[in-house]
Amino acid sequence: MNILVTGGAGFIGSNFIRWMKKHAPEHRIVNVDALTYAGNLENLADLPQDEGYRFLRADIRDRAKMNEVFFEYDITHVVNFAAESHVDRSIVDPELFLSTNVLGTQALLDTAKQQWKLAPEDKYSREFRADVKFLQVSTDEVYGALGRDGLFTESTPLAPNSPYSAAKASADLVCRAYYETFGLPLNITRCSNNYGPYQFPEKLIPLMIHNCMQGKPLPVYGDGMQIRDWLHVDDHCSALYAVLTRGTAGEVYNIGGNNERANLDIVRLILHTLGAEEDLICYVKDRPGHDRRYAIDNTKITTQLGWAPSYTFEDGIARTIAWYQNNPQWLENVLSGAYADYYERMYAPSFQ
Ligand code: NAD
Ligand code: DAU
Description:
Layout: E1 2-6, H1 11-23, E2 28-33, E3 53-57, H2 63-73, E4 77-80, H3 87-92, H4 94-116, E5 133-139, H5 163-182, E6 186-191, E7 194-195, H6 204-214, E8 218-221, E9 227-229, E10 231-232, H7 233-246, E11 252-255, E12 260-262, H8 263-273, E13 281-284, H9 299-305, H10 313-326, H11 328-335, H12 338-351
Helix pairs in contact: 1-7, 2-4, 4-5, 6-8
Bound molecules: nicotinamide-adenine-dinucleotide and 2'deoxy-thymidine-5'-diphospho-alpha-D-glucose.
């Protein structure tokens, strides 16, 4: 495969490239990333520079550039991670989320259709090159929020509640349309919350680890009893590879590891692991439209594709905390500049 990985300098994309280099090094990877505040080439600094890997700084909305990349590298597969990914930022600037997550995805779909379709000018033709696939990396947040009971299945109706999840759900629907109308071979994956190394410290787990290490307050939204279903990023990567290589075209696959935790329990676990006191916890105003609970039914991917997660949460979180403790320079570099400004705007009023 000649794989176009978009957003490969972000958290999951960089872990995916590293995972591929370890587990499936025979495939060539072209990493296209616009290097927004969340894109960090340091995430890939340990990667051997060889013939099988190229980085290009580009925006997925740049159609001419995407065409050029497909042509030059004979792209056969796309794994589309590129997105604005943080819910709180989407509340401040929804338009950017619609632009990148929806129109960016559509620009990539159009490029793939144009380049892979055997008769691109024939609107009735559904014939594509053999062995091509577009994988849209989506999220469980498109399903909205659950009450106390129940799980998200692939047929749960889409009911996004934030501008971020609305943009991701919209992109999913555009992907669906490109499969139904044009026959473009594609899959959509919907994964639960990821954790692991190289996650930008605006997200719950790395933010709490960092603040705890610094003795800073830990900002818990609302009552802290919201539930997320956590999966180690390596397990997300192995699931994506399973879908990329074995998924049936046109299908959606949920990804999750049956690991529901309340935010407060995660925060307490981090505090205790780092030997800090509970009085660091600071309850702040709740996120508007905050989804109460997410939980994934992973029956389809486990039974149909034989995928299973390999980390227990206890092992994964211990390794993750140790990684942030052992990489203070990475954290320091990420936290300088633009992120520091954003952090001030976001939290300063709550701590006064
Ligand atoms: P991230 O914010 O860490 O990384 C996003 C990357 O996309 C960055 O490197 C950024 O520079 C790049 N990017 C943004 N706009 C771009 C553009 N216009 N053109 C090219 N590159 C652009 O995000 P993440 O947490 O790694 O998430 C990756 C994907 O996985 C997203 O699509 C997200 O919706 C999805 N997802 C994330 C999680 C999670 O828990 N983090 C769970 C399920 C699904
Ligand atoms: O479910 C998958 C999604 O998980 C991905 O699609 C998103 O890209 C990813 O950002 C993540 O979304 P969440 O909103 O669930 O993640 P976040 O880390 O922002 O928040 C996790 C929970 O912790 C959520 O209930 C809000 C809460 N929280 C978060 C932050 C940043 C706090 O209580 N305090 C905080 O400071």
